[in-house]
Input
Amino acid sequence: MGALRSFLPSYPELLLAALCFLSLAALRLLVRARRQRAPVSWPVVGMLPFVLGNLGRLFDATTDALRECGGTFVFRGPWLARADFLVTCDPAAVQHCLASNHGGYDKGRDFAEMFDVVGDGLLVADAASWVRQRHVAATVFGNPSFRSFVLSTMARQTERLLVPFLDHAAAAASPDGFEIEDVFMRYSLDVSYASAFAADLDTLSVAAASAPVPLVGQATRVASEAALFRHIVPAWWWRLMRWLNVGTERRLAEAKAVLDEFVYREIANRKSQSLAVASGRRGGGSDLLSLYMAWPRDPGVTERQRDQFLRDSAVGYMFAAKDLIVAALTWFFYILCTHPHVEAKILQEIKSLRPSTTVTATGGGEHAVFDSDALQPASYLHAAVLETLRLFPPAPFEEKEAVGDDVLPDGTKVAKGTRVIFCIYAMGRIEEIWGSDCHEFRPERWLSDVGRVRHEPSHKFAVFNCGPRSCLGKNLGLSNIKIAAAAILYNFQVELVDSHAVEPQDSVVLHTKNGMRVRIKRRKAA
Output
């Protein structure tokens, strides 16, 4: 018996052997992680090191991983965290999940909780609630008076706020330049707020522009950043932070309070007006809130529930409209500053058009503004905007949850309850989707031989979603981008401040990490 014990390993030897095994396994995983771009699943922590190691360039790292994995991979979260999900940029999967098998995928309760800043609105609704809200929204967006009101608001705010502000900045001629993403933030907030409530915030007026961005503008950005944080970390983590009211969760709670204050105040103001006064407001009751309030109330809905519905609809609209414009315009002018030949072509095109109105410039002269109708022939401008959205989609990913077990077109099995992340940012940068020149900014890819804008299927160009949930405000959003871009390009020359790096920020909206500083000067009359 004593001889047998002499051959048995001691506890220290067993511990040493286990440590050696774990060390060799960790070393093997580390070598594998360095050799490949796809995320490695580590014991206990899963693929969380991939996220933490790529903070600041998460979308580019995910694009590299998808390229190496053939377009789809399963992200493994920490053990017991219920943070596993499927990531894909396969157009066939997009078509399957968002269009042909739309009923098999919902937004899901997890997504609604992560993006609870919009309440129970259309952006997070599912099933019967989504059908009802989509019907109301489609009716409002399809109303000719609403479309006319929004388009006139875009041109009006461009004429009275954006162009005068940039004219003032050009006259100041600061050698350090100014933060143009902040300008677009204010401009898009002024447009979306006026479109929703027929009321002017005037955050971009020359008098107000020296003050910080209003709280309601800051609130939407804070909410977007908090939503991404909730997507990255385990649910128990951010829920604990919410309970403790610390960090991003505290800022999110403050942002929600600001949004509630602004929106409920507008609802109360509208209610307090008589019908005669309301019909005399700018737009003649064609703003978003007026049309939603005119919609018949469902039986059994209380006044409080009605106000909540109006609040959620307005906040959802502001998120969708404001964030699209600010992100798209920022990256559009970043691209033009680095591709002067494209800028020259657009300028040549819009100079052939007749402006809708003019604005008196500081020190004499006039600046031109184009409305949506005037820009209809500007196909190269339209193509350049689409190409910008392909490479820099304002919403870099879309998310769904499987209602039941399913199989994707490539054979990938999807279990019930699995979250599926569609990486729209990666889709624009994959050779198999857009060709070997997918990394190049080339508006010509959107033009036919006769110069007309070429249509691409939404499951390939999913910037405005795909299937029944396709963006209702797509054409209005594109019009707003073109109205602002044409006014800036025609009247001013924009150049980047050399020492300022411009990079995407990790967020549910593709803002820049540190803003975009530019110098601006007036163009000489042709």
